[in-house]
Amino acid sequence: MNPGELQAPDIEWSALSPSLIVFTAAVLGVLVEAFVPRRSRYVAEVVLSALALAGAFAAVVVLASGGHATSEAQIAGMGSLAVDGPALFLQGVIVLVGLVSVFLFAERRLEPAAHGAAVDSFAAQPAAVPGGQAEQEAVRAGHTTTEIFPLLLFAVGGMLLFPAANDLLVLFIALEVLSLPLYLLCALARRRRLLSQEAAVKYFLLGAFASAFLLFGIAMLYGYAGSLSYARIGDVVRGEPSALDPGLAGTMGNDALLLIGGAMILVGLLFKVGAVPFHMWTPDVYQGAPTPVTGFMAAATKVAAFGAILRLLYVVLPGLRWDWEPVLWGVAIASMVAGAVIAITQTDVKRLLAYSSIAHAGFILSGVVAVSEDGVSSVLFYLGAYSFVTLGAFAVVTLVRDAGGEATHLSKWAGLGRRSPLLASVFALFLLAFAGIPLTSGFAGKFAVFRAAADAGAMGLVIVGVIASAIAAFFYVRVIVLMFFSEPKAEGPSVVIPSPLTMSVVALAAAVTVVLGVAPQYFLDLASQAGVFVR
Amino acid sequence: MNPQNYLYLAALLFTLGASGVLLRRNAIVVFMCIELMLNAANLALVTFSRMHGNLDGQIMAFFVMVVAAAEVVVGLAIIVMVYRSRHSASVDDASLMKL
User: Which of these, B65, B50, B64, lies nearest to A169 by C-alpha position?
Assistant: First the structure.
């Protein structure tokens, strides 16, 4: 090759098809916003998003059944993206969660119609001052923010790349592509707009702060290894002779670069999963964001970020295992205990679920610490089970409403079980799954994670985990008792009958919770086949 | 000149940015400090690129600039929106959700 002559990159288009489909649809969604008349945008966006995500899921299934998850696992896109078991499994979960979230976003029967036009739970005109002239005009005109659908698709696209990223550049880009739309989505609530805006500004500032840490960590690791590719950095960390490039003489022996770099990247990723001590944003953002967005964010971001953590620790930094293991032990224990204990004092359903998600981050981390194939597959299974329970729980929260919108204060949920037994029972099912009661998906997931941790010799972690689960079970059961065994208040909230969109979300989440709890074996097998990272 | 000095400068700028984020109260200033942290990382990337004699770090720096620009678009939109509804950009005032 002559110097100066560029070699055309060799891209495996079919292996990357899930994320390509989603990004194409996201760009088309932006064009729909620009060119389709306002009254038909909603239908166009919903159909486009749902079709794209269903297509992406089909692509994931085709790739997995073609053996890309096991024997045909490969590194695609000039070494930048992995197509292997964990990546495909998590991409499948994320795409399904995204598809179901589209239904939640598209729900238009909950809010009372504004001047004859059915509206969703997103602001009529997000740029208008709350309560101001411009907002009233927008509401009167029946405007809705249909931009939420392309934003959702971009976020899903970033999440698809995040667990598959096989070099640090793609890791950073994927992080930003998934985060930036989420910051905006948080700010778009129709009711309680000040809270929503506050959530957005907090999430944005703290998220950008965390990603700056991640970026500086990337710079340090690049300095240590002289490359951004995961495989190459992994070789240098292990000290493989083939990786000893004379150009690295200046930095190779400098463990400070490696340790600081690895730690800072972990800070950035642990922020995204909301593990203690990087959890401070979680309750505020979960509470302030519009509930459909909270459900999507709580379920899908966690899946994507844990995928990225697993790949980083198992592919890039296995040589540093003795350094990061104790740190993650500490983070896991702190998350489980702090999440469970602080949740007891909460009086708001969404904040309660936020602290419960912090505790769950700790449970999942104890599977990550196991450093074994079982550990990986148990984490994959847990993530799949947890994300649907979360989505279902937040979908139920959108239905319990009073005159001021969603009634999220726990005292208002008193006696809900007498007023609408079906909805309260479904919510109780989700809470029991969070608590890890047998015959729900939560039990199967927790059992798998703790068994992997125990097999790897982390008995201490398992004991703390079980105690934290018991503490957590206390406040889940307290909510159930409140719903079924206390008198309903006269001016309590009512349960709105939603359109088939939200109904299907709740039904699917409940079905997944029960199926994964009663007959988890097929999915456990699926996860254990998907437990090997390609290098 | 020894390229290591640029690394010390990058670390210094990063620390300045991080302490600014933690100490300052105006959302715009906090955001500027975050940008300073990103640019410190850029300086480190370019310096390492020069030390290793490959271009990966410089390419990464280009991507970071693009990402930083996108972040400004999103961030300023959010901050201006909050300012318009509260007439204040102080991060201390955003405390409706304190327990």
Answer: B64
